[in-house]
Write a structure and sequence with these properties.
By secondary structure, the protein is of the alpha+beta class. The protein is 38% helix and 32% strand. The protein has 6 helices and 20 strands. The strands form 4 sheets. A 6-stranded antiparallel beta barrel has the order 2-10-13-12-11-14. It has a 4-stranded antiparallel β-sheet with strand order 3-9-8-5, with no helix packed on it. A hairpin with a 2-residue loop joins strand 15 and strand 16. Helix 1 runs antiparallel to helix 2 and helix 3 runs antiparallel to helix 4. The longest helix is centred in the middle third of the chain and has 50 residues. It is elongated, with a radius of gyration of 56 Å.
């Protein structure tokens, strides 16, 4: 009860006593005085209780809120990264083999891990059978050339016979015109000319056939020489020998595995699969930090190729990341890469400061010690930081770990990093 209320009660009681003293007798006046004293005792007992109830309410209004860690929204460089895994593969690969059939491997000049130059002889095959075939082809060629020479001589003889037959025909015609020779002699001369001409034609055809035979045998000889040249198996490019399937004494077959496999120029790259949702953000030339097993420092590579196709079963697409020349890269080994998707300066807060209601992102901004829940628009995520593109200005303080202890409108005591010595996220 307040002091004003107590005074009013006392005034009312005094008025009642005065009225009773005027209208009543001594007994009524004594009873009234006892009632006044009882009311005063009750009022005196109730007044401390009312005062004690008012004091906690005033202390509660002035009491500071719970200590909550806050961080300011600051502008900083953000780097969004994506982790990928895959295998090391040759950037370009060449196989070394031969189409020579049934030849024996006599010599091997290179082994796995060796560096080879273009044109170097990597293996030597047995060519004795091919040399025998070459000798036989040379004999056939000589025979065909002799046949061609004979056909050419026959052409000359036939041409002489044609001239002689023509002269005989001319004389026979002259005699016939003079009525000296007979018709039979003229007919015989004409037939002799036709026969001589036919012999010339036959000789020419024989010579042409001999020439064709020479060309056929010459082509066969060239093929044998080519097969002999292939007995020296040469490297088609500079590179690193990845595999050797050839063995000494083994029989070469074009249907089998190649004799060697080479990583052209010794270049390797990371072949990795990424989800289709991320593949659309990939661009050629993006930087990638590639970590190899047993190597402390990562290698800096770049995205070289992005697959235009996504696997319909796994929903993954492939990327190829070039690697600088290094001895640690091994074809087929596991590798892990971190792709730098985006880098820019932006306003950022810890990702733990963000709370979601459905799809709406919210921050608990502390203004004059009062928590204000504010909707914001988010951007890229970089480690433990996240970009705020709208809804928050630089320097505003937000609850570092939102949604756990406080709600909108709560009074808090901000605790900053410089106060407690904490490390900013």
């Amino acid at each position: 009860m307040t002091k004003l209320g107590s005074n009013l009660i006392n005034a009312a009681l005094v008025g009642a006593v005065l009225a009773m003293s005027v209208t009543g007798g001594p007994l009524e006046t004594a009873q009234a005085q006892e009632a006044i004293q009882a009311e005063q005792r009750e009022a005196a007992a109730a007044q401390p209780q009312a005062a004690s109830a008012e004091e906690p309410r005033q202390d509660l209004a002035q009491q500071p809120g719970p200590a909550i860690r806050v961080v300011p929204a600051t502008r900083r460089e953000l780097v969004e990264e994506l982790g990928v895994t895959g295998s090391i593969v040759p950037r370009n690969e060449a196989v070394v083999g031969t189409d020579a059939q049934g030849l024996t491997v006599l010599q091997l000049n290179f082994d796995i891990g060796d560096t080879v130059r273009i044109g170097q002889v990597m293996a030597v095959l047995d060519k004795s059978a091919l040399q025998t075939q070459l000798a036989q082809t040379d004999a056939n060629l000589a025979q065909a050339e002799a046949s061609a020479s004979q056909s050419e001589a026959q052409i000359g003889e036939a041409e002489v016979a044609v001239r002689q037959a023509q002269e005989q025909l001319d004389r026979a015609r002259t005699l016939r015109e003079r009525q000296v020779g007979t018709q039979a002699q003229l007919d015989e001369a004409e037939n002799a000319l036709e026969t001589a001409q036919s012999r010339v034609t036959a000789a020419q055809r024989g010579f042409a056939a001999a020439q064709a035979q020479i060309r056929v045998i010459a082509a066969q000889r060239e093929n044998v020489l080519l097969q002999i040249a292939k007995t020296e198996v040469r490297s088609p490019a500079d590179g690193l020998v990845l595999a050797r399937n050839a063995t000494l004494g083994g029989i070469v077959s074009s249907a089998g595995d190649p004799l060697f496999r080479i990583a052209i120029n010794g270049e390797f790259e990371l072949a990795a699969d990424v989800p289709e949702t991320v593949l659309t953000r990939m661009r050629d030339g993006m930087k990638v930090a590639v970590s190899l097993p047993g190597v402390a420092e990562p290698f800096q590579g770049t995205v070289r190729r992005i697959s235009p196709e996504v696997d319909a079963q796994t929903r993954l697409g492939s990327i190829r990341v070039t690697l600088p020349p290094n001895e640690a890269a091994r074809a087929g080994s596991f590798a892990r890469g971190v792709v730098e998707v985006e880098r820019r300066e932006a306003l950022a807060v810890p990702s733990s400061a963000v709370v979601f209601e459905g799809r709406e992102a919210l921050l608990q901004v502390v203004v004059d010690g009062i928590v204000r829940t504010t909707p914001v628009t988010l951007g890229i995520r970089a480690g433990e930081l996240i970009e705020v593109t709208s809804g928050l200005s630089e320097g505003k303080e937000v609850v570092a770990r939102a949604g756990t202890f406080v709600a909108d409108g709560d009074r808090v005591t901000p605790v900053r990093d410089e106060t407690v010595g904490a490390v900013a996220p």
